[in-house]
């Protein structure tokens, strides 16, 4: 079966890269992600990626230690650059051509993000990782993912998580939690489901970008999502 989605934006959390560690980057997880990306590429999918930085530093948490929010968010955005470069190194080891762009200007390390160049790289078969969040404080990497998804003209935003979809409440805390196979943006917003922040969700809704939420550490899930199989939960305009 071929790719239903020819171009995707994959959102990865920084915490996912940590694996079983409390912080940092697990080489085993990075290699696993590389393998899943390679599977999806064999279907002909063009893949953009946005990664969080929570495994290294979270801006909001930093404010609790007295760090100003704007400075904390800047540190967090730099953490996403570290994650992106590390993931690129693992991808290159696996023979996956990969480019890293950043919303932050970091000369000699990463190129500044330009949507037209990113699209050209995708069309040439490169995986494109966009670091640095939106480049501005007070915006999450979920919002950055929604923004980049629109900018690279991806057909879908795929959010890789620790759970297998969207639930009405935290399934880790309540075994009676109900999973949604499909749900609308408006319902997800009205129910205040913690899938993505409201800014990110609203941006996807305005641009009619479907969001697929799936479990990262389930081999084959990314490939099946790209194929359009019913994996995880899908958030769309009208459910």
Describe what is shown at a glance.
This protein is an alpha/beta fold.
Write a concise keyword list for the protein shown above.
239 residues; alpha/beta; nine-stranded mixed beta sheet; two-stranded antiparallel sheet; 11 strands; 19% strand
Strand order of the largest sheet: 4-3-5-2-1-6-10-11-9
Q: Give the percentage of residues in beta strands.
A: 15-25%
State the helicity in percent bands. 25-40%
Q: What coarse outline follows from CA principal-axis ratios?
A: globular
User: Count of DSSP E strands?
Assistant: 11
* Multimeric status of the protein: single chain
Class per helix and strand makeup: alpha/beta
Terminal Cα span: 25 Å
Number of discrete helical segments: 9
What integer value in Å does the Rg equal? 17 Å
What value does the average pLDDT take? Answer: 93
Tell me about this structure:
This protein is of the alpha/beta class and 239 residues long. It has helices at 14-18, 27-41, 59-63, 69-93, 115-123, 141-151, 185-190, 198-206, 221-227; strands at 7-12, 46-51, 98-102, 111-112, 127-131, 156-161, 166-167, 179-180, 182-184, 211-215, 233-236. The strands form two sheets. Strands 4-3-5-2-1-6-10-11-9 form a nine-stranded mixed beta sheet, with helices on both faces. Strands 7-8 form a two-stranded antiparallel ribbon. Helix 2 packs across helix 4, helix 2 (27-41) runs parallel beside helix 9 (221-227) and helix 6 runs parallel beside helix 8 (198-206). The longest helix is centred in the middle third of the chain and has 25 residues, at 69-93. It is globular, with a radius of gyration of 17 Å. The mean pLDDT is 93.
